[in-house]
Amino acid sequence: MNDLGYFETRGVNVFVFNNEFNGFFFDEKTAGIELIHHGVRTATGGAVRLQNTPEQWDLVPFMADRKITKSTNTIEVVLRYKEFNFESKVSVTPSKDGFLITVYLDKPLPAALEGRAGFNMEFLPASYFEKTYMADGKPGTFPLYPSSTTVVKPVSEKIPQFEGHNTFDDRGRGEYIDPMPLGSCKTLVLAPEDPERRVTIQSETELMLFDGRNLAQNGWFVVRSLLPAGKTGNVLQWFVKPNALPNWIRTPVIGFSQVGYHPDQEKMAVIELDNNDTPLKKATLYRVTPEGESIEALSADLKPWGKYLRYNYVKFDFTSVKESGLYFIQYGNQKTNTFVIDPGVFDDIWHATLDVWFPVQMDHMKVNEAYRVWHGLPYLDDALQAPVNHQHFDGYFQGPTTETRFKPLERIPGLAVGGWFDAGDFDIQTGSHNSVILSFADAWERFGISRDETFIDQAARYVDIHRPDGKPDLLQQLEHGTLNVVAQLQNIGHPVRGIIVPNLHQYHHLGDAINETDNLPYNPALKPYESDGKSSGTMDDRWAFTNRTSTLDYHSIAALAASNRVLLDFNKPLADDCLTQAKRLYEEDKTRVFKEDTIFGKFRSNTELMAALQLFISTKDSQYSKRFEEIVWKALDESLNRNISTALQAYPYFGDDYRNKLKDYVIKYKALNDGYDKDNPYGVPISARGWAGNTIIIDWAITNYYANKCYPGIMGPEYVFKGLNYILGCHPYSNISFVSTVGTRSKKITYGSNRADFRFIAGGIVPGVLLLKPDFLENKEDWPFLWGENECVIDTGAAWVLLSGAVKDMAGK
Ligand SMILES: [Ca+2]
Ligand SMILES: [Ca+2]
Ligand SMILES: [Ca+2]
Predict the structure, then answer these.
(1) Distance between CA atoms of residues 234 and 104, nearest Å
(2) Distance, CA of 50 to CA of 114 (rounded, Å)
């Protein structure tokens, strides 16, 4: 056991509940007993579980206690299912060339869990694709696609999923599906042929191997033993032996920008090294000629940076190489793929995001690309008022009142217009819409991005990708998001947190958005699954969660005030509606008691500050500038990081007093930035949340651009490029570009609506490297289903377009 509280030998780490099951998204496949096998996390979810192949929303055990005993080299956890008043103790300890997992019960299994409670461990399908296994000597091949046997059972026998939700659409038949094992044995060897993946599991109790993907595409291969009925004490033991290669050293990761570099830019590769690796003295940059020859451009000493989390880092500076051309880096025997040095490298880095990713996310439209239809025209049955006192599984909550003129489940008119699917799911999140609108408005006003590669016909509700229509796409996208926010204000009176399907069996939808609902308005006079052609008896229309917060009101005011300016010459009636609604809402909020968004409020910038600024820019009315000046300094004192961006955006509109005072804050902000160089070798703010932090890094780089524009003597351009290079490949774990199709090598597997196909949507930006506590950063490129690593969201996409405009602007100078 190491000092960080996990078991470690060369090539193998065993985590025992260093990461817990999450009560918010439930089973994220990042908790329990886990295995990092030769640098790759291959097993997760080791715990007492109640299903053969638990799904995301099946009950997870609560970790009631965790005890590390160094003297006996043991980690023990107490796991509790409060729904069954059932507790078990699981202990893990090294033994010979593996480890023992032992399950103890103080009381016999509750009768309801006999034949249900078992010890499970889940193995990543992608790590075992095209590999084999041996069950008591009987050979088998891991299935590439699920096709093992399942049985149907009456729902009365099913252990209910959390809060009574249900992932299964049984079409009213009262059934559920139970997968059967691929095989069973006492000794199971996974991948005997592959020394990096070979794991042997032995037990006196029968081991069963299941394929979780029969029930859910994000399922893993599950090894499971049932706990015996009527027994206490040591009721189950596994001996697990992951093969460990002696003297194994992880292949170095050479981090650099996959897009390449402007000749005048700082150029720094960051090389990530195994702790057991001896850093080399030098790396070399080669230029590739049209004849295919490699010519040495620079050989330079590496600068040690030191240790960050579990690896060592050295840096390779090739800033001095300025000749336009194709290059690669060689470190030891490893050569990177080629990349570009050229003044034009940033000319098109946002094209995929604006040309493809945003059109595919467009709600209430049919979206076509050449011969392919991305999705039909969805959600014409929007939307119903959410019922009161309702906790939704995606984090939405409707409180004790609707705060609207609508009764619970009453139809709200006018909402089937505009908007984007916020992420890999299909809900409308108003807060994200506001962020997108503000980023797009800023990109338009600063950089005039007038690219036209999308045909968008609002009247016909039809979108065609790679087909110019004479209108700038940025304005058309901004119009599309604004249409939904304005519709909320006009029809409901205030912005709502979001609009989302009510049933869990709809929510996990994969594929064409048009099929998540039946597209027909709900009609209670009909039976479920019955339709008269115009309406249907299936309660599948999306619900609007309508509770009102000042945080969201002000954020929407800011977005619509900005939208007003940008849309004036493009769609005057909508631009007028934006300002009318923004001013009305602002007047209302002036006299309302301030109410913070309890979920997102604390992560967001001061939205009242944003609202006052945007209304002032649009109207030049001094009531807004006065309010801005009243609150800006306090906001900066409370959170410099969150509010410096808004304060910098105000720079052109305020005088010398303001600028001089702000300067002191920018100096402090610069000092915070310099601190990141000591935190990690990339010099950017890497976060440790349950959702990886690329959005934070992109927003940070944009803020640094604002600071560089206003105070170039304080904030140099390198603070913008550090963020950019990180996103484009100079980051931990791998050197892939986090923007699909941007750069020589980029994300080809992401958590989009097409994740079941192990594909991507061009231009999406993934969350990036996720920290598995205490020290493992991960971004998988063979498994799309870890949303915290691979789910692209709209606000990040829009921020990427803005950042791309900024770096093109800087490169041009
Ligand atoms: Ca969502
Ligand atoms: Ca267009
Ligand atoms: Ca419907």
Answers:
(1) 5
(2) 10
Predicted confidence at residue 666, as pLDDT, reads 98
460-to-367, 388, 455, 521 alpha-carbon distances in Å = 11, 35, 11, 20
Ligand number nearest CA of 458 is: 2
Side chain identity at residue 555, one-letter code? H
Q: What is the pLDDT of residues 119-158, one digit of tens each?
A: 999 999 999 999 999 999 999 999 999 999 999 999 999 9
20: Cα separation from own chain's centroid: 18
Peptide bond into 383 cis (omega under 30): yes
Angle at 708 between CA 612 and CA 353, to 5 degrees: 75
The β-bridge relationship of strands 150-154 and 86-95 is unpaired
Scan for tokens 């193998």, then name that residue: 12
- Ligand index nearest the alpha carbon of residue 454: 2
> 43: CA distance to ligand 1 center in Å?
27
For residue 496, the SS3 value is coil
Do the beta carbons of residue 798 and residue 354 sit within 8 Å? no
Indicate the DSSP class of residue 520. S
Report angle CA 600, 605, 611 to the nearest 5 degrees.
110
pLDDT of residue 642: 95
Q: What's the CA-to-centroid distance between 262 and ligand 2, angstroms?
A: 29
299-322 pLDDT, tens digit each: 999 999 999 999 999 999 999 999
- For residues 589 and 34, give the distance between their C-alpha atoms in angstroms, rounded to a whole number: 49
**Regions of the chain short of the pLDDT cut 70:** 599-603
Ligand 1 centre from 422 Cα, in Å? Answer: 6
**Nearest ligand to the CA atom of 515:** 3
- Position 646 scores a pLDDT of 98
Q: Which DSSP state fits 28? A: -
What is residue 164's predicted lDDT score, i.e. its pLDDT? 86
Cα–Cα separations (whole angstroms), residue 551 to 386, 448, 496, 597: 20, 29, 11, 6
